[in-house]
Amino acid sequence: MNPTYDFSGQVAFVTGASSGMGLATARAFAESGAAVALADINEGSLSTAATQLTDQGHRVLALACNVTDEGQVAAAVDRTVATFGRLDMAYNNAGIQIPPADAAEESAEQFDRVNAINLRGVWAGMKHELRHMRTQGSGAIVNCSSLGGLVGIPGRASYHATKHGVIGLTGSAALEYAPRGIRINAICPGTIDTPMVSDMIAKGELDRAEAKASQPINRLGTAEEIAQAVLWLCSPGASFVIGVALPVDGGYVAR
């Protein structure tokens, strides 16, 4: 049984919120009483997700947002605050995976693309969330890294560089803002059963059996398990937790 949280009267902002870990987390925030802003570049799936949550009686705001564009991120955060009056929690989740590549052959275009979304997108989200939270003197931010932020895997240099970068970004900002009443942490998911992972498997970029076997729990994680970790990091139960990179990976990095 998952723990329950009471986020009534609070507001959460989630990027990459139309599917997978982002949607599961947005739903968990909403079911715990928070008003939730869903930001995503995919307007079709974003509209569907927002409609589902609204039909269930939740307070939801759908925001089309490309996290590689800082102006769009700033506007999305500003509109969240204008609509709901405050910002208490944020999960900077938007990210992509890229095909494996020899480190000597990977293109600069691919490197720039994955960095623009996975690292600069997190930086932009955190930057503009902090601008509102520091005025309140309170807030909790969770940035999405990966087990790839804690280890290296052949063929994944650029992707892992972005996820290591998220951890560095998180730790430095956490130290800067802890005295101001804002907690910042990172989460490091293992291989999670999401549409992105399913697409990798379909393209032959990932073998499901090998992925399961690489995690000592011998299965893929679920988006809901990631959501529960994010909610805990945003909750009073984690009030003394600052600047961590929390593995939620079925034991992968403990091997």
TrEMBL record:
Transmembrane segments: none annotated. The keyword Signal does not apply. InterPro entries: NAD(P)-bd_dom_sf (IPR036291), SDR_fam (IPR002347). It holds the Pfam family adh_short_C2. Keywords: Oxidoreductase. GO terms for molecular function: oxidoreductase activity. Belongs to the short-chain dehydrogenases/reductases (SDR) family. This is NAD(P)-dependent dehydrogenase (Short-subunit alcohol dehydrogenase family).
